[in-house]
Structures are given as C-alpha cells and as structure tokens.
Amino acid sequence: MANAKVIEQKSQVVSEIKEKLDNAKSVVLFDYRGLTVSEVNELRRALKEAGASYKVYKNTLMVRALNDSNKELENYLAGPSAISFSDDELAPVKVISEFAKEHEALELKAGIVEGKVASAAELAQYAAIPSREGLLTMLAGGMMGVVRDLSICLDLYSNQKEN
User: Fold this and answer.
1) DSSP E strands: which ranges in 22-115?
2) Which of 43, 51, 126 is nearest to 87 (CA)?
3) Contact residues for 69 (Cβ-Cβ < 8 A; gap 6+)
4) pLDDT, tens digit, for every residue of 12-68?
5) Based on the domain organization, do 113 and 137 belong to the same domain?
6) How many Cβ atoms from other residues are within 10 Å of residue 37's Cβ?
7) Distance between alpha carbon 29 and the CA centroid of its chain, in Å?
8) Global pTM value
9) Are 69 and 114 in a shared domain?
10) Could you tell me if 89 and 148 lie in one domain?
11) What CATH number did the domain enclosing 44 receive?
12) Is residue 31 located within the same domain as residue 89?
C-alpha cells in the first residue's frame, strides 16, 4: 500500500493542477521531447515574459485533475507532456507556436482556449491571429482610409461648386 505521505503529496499536486486549470483562460499541452535544456529554458523565459507558466506533471496526476475540473484533454496525454497556463487567451499559444517553428522537436498537442478544447490545428489558427495591438493598428488604418477618401471627395465637391 502506498505511503500516506506520498498520497498526500500527490493529492496536493492534483489540487494545484486543478486550481490552475480552473483559473487559467488558456491551457496548452505540448510535447517537449527532443528539446535541449537551453531550449527549454528559452521557452520557459519566453512564456514567462508573455505572462504564462510552464510545468511538467505526471500524466496520471494531470488526468485526475482534468477529471476533477471537467476538462476533456485526457486523449492528448499520450507520452510526455508539458502544460502551459495563462490568464491571456492567446499569448501562450502564440509563443509556443512561434517556438515550434524554430524548433521542430516541439509539437503542440491540444489546449483549452476560452473554456473550449482546441486541437493542434485549431491552436495553429489561433496563433495566426494578430495581436491586439496589431488588430487595433489595422482598424485605425482602415478608419484613416475612410476619412482620407471622404476628405478627397469633399475637396473635389467644393472645387466643383467653386467653378
């Protein structure tokens, strides 16, 4: 029979994972096999700068936490998996996707974005969305074009009335 101290430690880890799952706006599961220690540290640093955390847990403990929090990611837990939690919906998806482009050993498995399970293909689509600042810039550029066109039309109209 398992030691009571070991069982208590495992239950604490399960409750930690469950708490992180419940509080995170996005969760990303990925396969980190093949990355060197320096590459893992680089990824960890990039995720931290984006406001995300990175952790490796035993799959059995993650399955228990996922079952407790009613998240359906158990099917993606084959083999070693790392997990990233964030309060931002897209930051970890973008960071890990960009990192995966440079390091072929990293493979996205699945994630949870806005409470919905997303496959690796869906995560790739999320990663292609421009940042908030980029979207605002595009919106401002579109609005400036409309204002410019209106000013040209008004100028032409006023020139026509003067003649």
Assistant:
1) 26-31, 52-56, 82-86, 107-113
2) 51
3) 18, 21, 22
4) 888 888 888 888 888 888 888 888 889 888 988 998 988 888 888 888 888 888 877
5) no
6) 7
7) 9
8) 0.72
9) yes
10) no
11) 3.30.70.1730
12) yes
137 and 112 in one domain? Answer: no
160's CB contacts (< 8 A; 6+ apart) are none
Tokens (6 digits) for 14: 């399960």
Structure tokens belonging to residue 34 = 């093949």
Write down the residue that tokens 């509080």 correspond to: 23
In the chain, the amino acid numbered 89 is E
* Distance separating alpha carbons of residues 56 and 43, to the nearest angstrom: 13
Q: What percentage of the chain reaches a pLDDT higher than 70? A: 98
Q: Are residues 92 and 32 in the same domain?
A: yes
**CA atoms of 44 and 21, how far apart (whole Å):** 18
Beta strands in the chain (DSSP E): 26-31, 52-56, 82-86, 107-113, 116-119
Same domain, 47 and 120: yes
Structurally, how many domains does the chain consist of? 2
Task: Copy the structure tokens of residue 151.
Answer: 């000013």
Both structure tokens of 107: 């493979």
Same domain, 120 and 137: no
| Residue 84: domain span | 4-129
- What would the pLDDT profile of 138-149 be if each residue is shown by its tens digit? 888 888 888 888
Phi and psi, residue 130, nearest 5°: -65, 160
